[in-house]
Structures are given as structure tokens and as C-alpha cells.
Amino acid sequence: MEEGIQYCIGYFAILFADCVVVPQKPSNTATESIHKISDLQISLILTNDSNMNIKFSVFGCQILNINAANSESVEHILNIDDDSAEQSNDPILILNTSGTSGKPKYAVLSRYNISSNVDAHIASVNISSDDIGLIALPIYFSYCNTSQFLSYVKLGMSFVIDSKSIYPSAFINIVKSEHITVTNVTPPILDCLLDYGESSVAALASLHHLCVGAMGINKRLWKKAVDKLHNCKIYSTYGMTEMSPRLTTLPSEDFPKKIGSVGLPLQGVEIIIDKHKDE
After folding, report:
1. Second label for 267, Cα 20 to 30 Å away, from 38, 51, 57, 96?
2. Helix count (H) and strand count (E) of the chain?
3. CB 163 within 8 A of CB 143
4. 120-173, pLDDT tens digit by residue?
């Protein structure tokens, strides 16, 4: 399903039905999708792609096109029950790991994993319901899923979802027109933004909080961010999909002076460095 309001509706409809969400990249090949359907024994595909019936009906999945569905059909197919019991250790989300530290695999996350990680992230970056967010990163990746999508929803924030805003011109236009105050970026996106011109950097004046993660920040970019984003609190973040995924945050006040640091463990997280294995 393409990112946008329909993705959000589908996500929470599945959770409300006490089912497990398995986000699917729109760019996945048919072979990748077939493997996932088989591996995870997926019984329902929620989509806004009219060609999905042709692609996957042969695999025995029910396919519900959210564009054509009404509330009764959604309720019937998902077996929504207002009295369903919620257990904190019940799985609610299955995500693919990035594969940066080994072969990609599935990470099964529980209600407690996700909710506690959302709360810990919010506390570590000091955002509030008064902020306005921009989701430019893929919403089906763990970093964006927890530290943006679910955190923004938990706070009751207004936010914009626009996958095209990974490009500097679109990003800057949305930040300026929608008065965006908080967003997450990767180091390559940040590098492109800061190199786009001084007038473009000035257009980012409404940004109060900027989380940088998904990969390390080199010293050159670190110093450039400190020099150019004077009025924005910048947080370096680190995590793993298996951990829901946020593990650490470098507080914004430490960002200018602790180059290369991934920061402090979030509330409830304990990290041990094994000097013998360098892990």
C-alpha cells in the first residue's frame, strides 16, 4: 500500500481487529511478496492497488481493496470485536530488518515493545502535541514507524506524510508551507539539505527538533549541521529493528560537542559493550 492516510487507516484497522500488521514495501517484487506471504502465513492483504487481486489471489489470501471497501466489509473480513482482549506480550507487528549487520530477517514485536519504545522516544526528544511533523522516510521501516508515525499519533500531533519530500526542494517547500517543527532524516538526506543553498537552509527556520538516524554521521556532516542549523535541536539516534527499534539518543545539548556519539540508552534500555568482541 502506498504511504498516506489510507496506510494509517489500514494500519489501525488491523490492530483494532487484534491482528498482526506486516507492512509491505510498494516496490517489493512479486517474488519477495510471495515469500513473505508463505513465510508468515498471511491470510489477508489490505491494499489500494487494483491489480492486487490478479497478482496474489492464487495464494489463498483474502484481498481487501480499501478504496472499494465500506465499513461493514472491513468489519466482517477483519472480524473486529470491541470486546477483544489485549495482552501486552501479544505480537502486533512484524518488520523486516535492514540487513546491515547480517542477513535480513523478520522481527516480531509485541504491544509492550512498541508502546514502551514510543514513550521512551518521546521523552528523549522532548516533542509535544503542539509540534507539526513531516514524515519523509519510508513509513514501513522501523525507525519511522516508531519514532515518527506512532509517536506523532500518540501525542495527537498534526503531521504530513510525503515520500517525495526526501528530495531537498520538496522537503524545504513542505517545511516552509506547513510550518513543520519536527522531522527525522538520514545522514545522506541531511547532507543534501545543507548543501542546497543558504536560502534553503534559512527556509528550515521553523524546525525545532531534528532526529538523525538509520546510519552513522561522519565528522564533516556533524560539524556542518552544527554550523548551519543554529536554532534547531539536533538529536543523534541509534537503534535496531529487533528493539522496536530505538535504543539510544544523544541529547541535543550534547550534539555540538560529542561528535560520533550515539548518546545515552533510552528509559528501560541497558547496553553493554563487549570489549572482547568489540560489540
Report:
1. 96
2. 11, 11
3. no
4. 999 999 899 999 999 999 888 888 999 999 999 999 999 999 988 888 899 999
Per-residue pLDDT tens for 81-116? 555 555 677 888 988 876 665 677 888 898 888 999
**pTM, to two decimals:** 0.85
- Report the interhelical angle of 168-178 vs 187-194 (nearest 10°): 80
* Cβ–Cβ < 8 Å for 204, 193: yes
Neighbouring CB atoms inside 10 A of 240's CB total: 16
- 245: preceding bond cis by omega (within 30 degrees): yes
Q: Residue 20 corresponds to which amino acid?
A: V
| Cα–Cα distance for residue pair 137/79, rounded to 1 Å | 32
Angle at 240 between CA 38 and CA 271, to 5 degrees: 140
CA distance 3 to 106: 21
Least Cα distance to 93 among 82, 74, 107 occurs for 107
What is the torsion angle, in degrees rounded to the nearest 10, for the CA atoms of residue 110, residue 116, residue 119 and residue 121? -90
Residue with cell 553493554: 272
